[in-house]
Amino acid sequence: MRILITNDDGINAPGLSVLQEIAEELAGPDGEVWTVAPAFEQSGVGHCISFTRPMMVSKMGERRYAAEGSPADCVLAALHDIMKDARPDLVLSGVNRGNNSAENALYSGTLGAAMEAALQGVRAVALSQYYGPANKDLDDQFEAARGHGLATMRALLERGVWTEDDYGIFYNINFPPVPSADVKGIKAARQGFRRDMGFGVQPVSSPSGRQFLWVTGAPQQQPTSPGSDADVNLQGYISVTPMRADLTAHDVMEALTAIE
C-alpha cells in the first residue's frame, strides 16, 4: 500500500511521528509512506487552499517534503506533483495535538486535508488525540493514539464503508484523553456540538499601544449529547465518525419546495 501522511501541526510535530509509525505498519514491507506536511503550524485553517499565492515545496529527505501552505495544499501538492505518477492508496492526516471532535472538526486543518483527499477520490482518515487531565502530564501525550491507532485503522480499512460517489466518505478518528491502558474500545459516533463553547476573541495592547485580538477557545471537558464523538471520547472510547464534504441540509430540502 502507498500511503501519504500530512498534518496541520507542521512537519516537525510529534504527532506526525506517531502517524508515521502507524502508516509504516499499514503499508507493510512492500509499501511506501510519503510525507508532505506544512513547513509551519497551520492549526485552525480548515479546508483553506493557497489560491492567490504560490507555495514553495522543499524536499527534506527520501519521500519527505515540506510545503509552505495549508494541509489541503499539501494534499494537492502530493497528488498533482510529488506523487503524480503513482498516487497514494490512502491519505492519513494527524495525529493532531488536541481533539477534533464536535464543532472543532469545522475549523480543523487536519480534517481539511482528509476532506481534500476525499474530493480527489482518495480514501482518507483524520486522526486526533484528545487532551485532558488524565493524559496531559504523561511522558507520551499521544499514548492512546500510539497504542491503538494501528488496530483502529486496520478495523476501519477492513470493515468501514468507503464510497466512490461525488462527495465520498472520509473519516474522523479521535483518541480519548486517557492513557493507552484505559482506552475502552471503539465506537462509531456522530459529530457532536458543545453548547456555549464557541471560539471568541480577547483584546490585548502591545507595548507600543497597538490593539490586537487573540482568538480564544474554551474548555474541552464539557459534556455533549449522548452518543456523539466528544461524549464517547470523554467516556474513554475512540470515536470513528464518517463524514462528507456535502454541506447541503438534506433534511430541509423537501420543506423548501414551498418556495418554488
Automatic annotation (TrEMBL):
Keywords: Cytoplasm, Hydrolase, Metal-binding, Nucleotide-binding. Its cofactor is a divalent metal cation. A divalent metal cation binds at D8, D9, S43, N96. Its EC number is 3.1.3.5. Its main location: cytoplasm. GO terms for molecular function: 3'-nucleotidase activity; 5'-nucleotidase activity; exopolyphosphatase activity; metal ion binding; nucleotide binding. It is found in: Cytoplasm. GO terms for cellular component: cytoplasm. InterPro entries: SurE (IPR030048), SurE-like_Pase/nucleotidase (IPR002828), SurE-like_sf (IPR036523). The keyword Signal does not apply. Pfam families: SurE. It catalyses: a ribonucleoside 5'-phosphate + H2O = a ribonucleoside + phosphate. Binds 1 divalent metal cation per subunit. Residues 3-195 form the Survival protein SurE-like phosphatase/nucleotidase domain. Belongs to the SurE nucleotidase family. Nucleotidase that shows phosphatase activity on nucleoside 5'-monophosphates. NCBIfam families: PRK00346.1-4, PRK13931.1, surE. This is 5'-nucleotidase SurE. The gene is surE.
